[in-house]
Amino acid sequence: MVDVPLGVGGVPPAEVEDVELYHPKSWVTHYVFSQDAKIIAVQYSVTALSIGLVALMLSWLMRVQLAFPGALSFIDADAYYQLITMHGMMMVVYVLTALFLGGFGNYLIPLMLGARDMVFPYANMLSFWFYLLAVVVLFASFAVPGGPTGAGWTLYPPQSITAGTPGLAWGIIMMLVSLMIFIIGFTMGGLNYVVTVLQGRTRGMTLMRMPLTVWGIFTASVMALLAFPALFVGAVMMLFDRLLGTSFFMPEIIEQGARLPYGGGSPILFQHLFWFFGHPEVYIVALPAFGIVSDLISVHARRNIFGYRMMVWAIVAIGALSFVVWAHHMYVSGMNPYFGFFFATTTLIIAIPTAIKVYNWVLTLWRGDIHLTVPMLFALAFIVTFVNGGLTGLFLGNVVVDVPLSDTMFVVAHFHMVMGVAPILVIFGALYHWYPKVTGRLLNVPLGQLHFWVTFLGAYLIFFPMHYLGLMGVPRRYYEMGETAIYPQSAHDLNIFITVTALLVGAAQFAFVFNLIWSLRHGREAGGNPWRACSLEWQTSATPPPHGNFGKELPIVYRWAYDYNVPGAPEDFIPQNQPPLAGEIASRAP
Amino acid sequence: MHVVLVLVLVAIGSVLFHFLSPWWWTPIASNWQYIDDTIIITFWITGVVFVAVLLFMAYCVWRFRHREGHKAAFEPENRRLETGLTVITGLGVAAMLAPGLFVWNHFITVPPDASEIEIVGQQWQWSFRLPGKDGKLGRSSIDSIADDNPLGLDKNDPDGRDDVVVQSEDLHLPIGKPIKVVLRSTDVLHNFYVPEFRAKMDILPGSSTYFWLTPTRTGTFDILCAELCGTGHPYMRGSVVVEEQLSYDVWLDSQQRRMVAQQDGTKGQKGEVEVQQ
């Protein structure tokens, strides 16, 4: 007999008193300085998506330069490096992290757990305003003398704070300050997500009954709280090096003929701090995507997620392991080469829980009742791109294989596939899935399908061939590929193909933006539970959910979130707050 | 059912692209055939997994698509299936990791008979230093760098007296001899990258790094920089010439004679200055 996580033995008593919420009295406290997690979620999401559009347009400029060097006269080498730096930092931190945790985390955690709000609503509000301030500082660096930093998103010293790199005067300072503000803001939000998951669940919502979306966001938040401090101290130390003349990261160096007054520092120290943050960061983006896509697949395949407990342990295992793999970004950094043995082993071990997740997604499809809705299409495309990007990770993680491939376009293709395209496909799927809950209306389906096909196939055509440029020996971060005996003319043609495809995929995103705005008024009315899903956010008293989320009484949870097509049940789904059906426990008890 | 079709096409198309596209690594020119072999093993294992997952997905989407009256099976767990898949994955990972670590051990163990050369990265040019007849490189310091001493050689170190400094010229290497490449930077990070050699390593200011190789094919190969080092990064180029021992000896000899002539020249100039004072 399988062990079905059911409400066997009844429901535990209420552990948390239902507390009085802060009630906004004016339009400003309702919609601007809001303490309602749902409003904060929308604020986070709209801000992050807007930055995403900017980052997209920056990538257009980069791609045009790579395909047609010198075609745009305002993109000189300085500008190019500023573009790649801002594109990378925006996407990783200000779009993906903010959207998954600040956007989806704020919206879904209280609703999925049957809570009225986050446990610290005021800190939650501050979290968004710090985030916005960080964004303002980041964008202000476009306006300062010298422009933003062009040090690459990894900001490796000494190059990031010495001559020869654009943005030396102001840009790098703005970048570091912006990151520090972001981290302060995130900490206030992150503590909220973690404490709400641990303390704010409604009666009956045990940890092992939480939807995997919450598990993913929860684990990612814990990781972010542990990983971001490393970036924070790295930023403080680099600011000291830049402004106060300390030498944390600065050895004896000569800057364009002049001996600088630095000495004794270690550039590799920064790389360790950066990647101690930077590798968990990959999973801070990936784990919420894993969780969300699990729920999308289960709902739209009308089948319980396969191997729920294994999925939870895989998330936790990946979260823990991701703190001991960081130096696989540094195999050729010049660190002690014996580290390679340890970090290659840990890195390849992390492939095992990750593979388990992939198996369980496809095994959820197996014997399902697959509805090819737009969210399901995006979920399927996620599996394709994530498997592709995950497998190329086995090349780069396997220390000696990384030697010829590191710092080439292979790496660029790999991380775009695995932490760019794959999570963004999940974001799109999730937006199509939860938009009806947020607005009460469905997004337009034909437009959604157009958006899906162009985005999925286009992104695959951009990044799959790009691996082979790297294999051929084209380094990353080149203002132009240039002429080398080993690059055939066809490599230049491939660059043009990638750029044209990238322009098209980018254009398709504007169809999505149009859909988001148009459907606000003209979308089909969704009702409370258009996907016939089990989890609590679809069982609210009204849609969009009111202040306080649920009606007078908080829901009581009797079962896990995946009771789809349960034999003998009257419908093909049983909501989490549905008390046991007659005879249910007797017939399915272990 | 275009979803099924696309999934199959992505799987097959990716494999065809892999075998048919004109973009592939350059013919190897060093002893690191092992690295290429490990990549091939990894391609096979990951390729099989990729195709298997995609085709299985395509099958599921086709076989279990929604139709009137069709119901999904309720099956929360299947311990045997999950354990089996975990074990197979573990074996696959081990099959990639074991050769990888074996080759890595080889990669970081410099053979005792390797001769040392030094490569210095500066924004945005390559410089090289070869030991003279004593086979030893002398000490260097960033504070000794001057117009007549671009690499900061320690003039008091007897090991460095006969060192050969090569700037704005090609580096030459003899074929078939193991070489330990010691890397040094005077300003920012660089990375000495010759695609044909496969091996590469970052170059750091403040400390030296190394890797080793044995050139196995004669020819002239481009040197690229593979670590972002400022706006001149893509233009930091150089060339390395791998040649037979005889022609290498001739080249080294001419470089040594040039060094001696240069040193005499600078000494002479200094002498004149002293006389004038």
Could you characterize the architecture of this molecule?
The complex is a heterodimer of chains A (590) and B (277). Chain A is mainly α and 590 residues long. Among the domains of chain A are: 372-526, no CATH class; 530-590, no CATH class. Helix content of chain A is 61%, strand content 1%. Chain A contains 16 helices and 2 strands. In chain A, β1 and β2 (258-259) form a beta hairpin. The N and C termini of chain A lie close together (6 Å). Chain B is α+β, with helices and mostly antiparallel strands and 277 residues long. Helix content of chain B is 40%, strand content 20%. Chains A and B meet through α3, β1, α8, α9 and α10 of A and α1, α2, α3, β7 and β9 of B. Chain B: InterPro entries: CcO_II, CcO_II-like_C, Copper_CuA, Cupredoxin, Cyt_c_oxidase_su2_TM_sf.
Topology:
The complex is a heterodimer of chains A (590) and B (277).
Chain A lengths: L26 H6 L4 H31 L9 H37 L7 H20 L30 H29 L12 H32 L10 E2 L2 E2 L7 H34 L7 H14 L17 H11 L1 H15 L8 H24 L1 H7 L3 H31 L5 H28 L16 H34 L61 H5 L2
Chain B lengths: L1 H19 L12 H31 L15 H30 L6 E8 L2 E6 L33 E4 L3 E4 L4 E7 L4 E4 L6 E4 L5 E5 L5 E7 L12 E6 L1 H32 L1
Parallel strand pairs in B: 1-5, 4-10
Antiparallel strand pairs in B: 1-2, 2-3, 5-8, 6-7, 6-9, 9-10
Helix pairs in contact in B: 1-2, 2-3
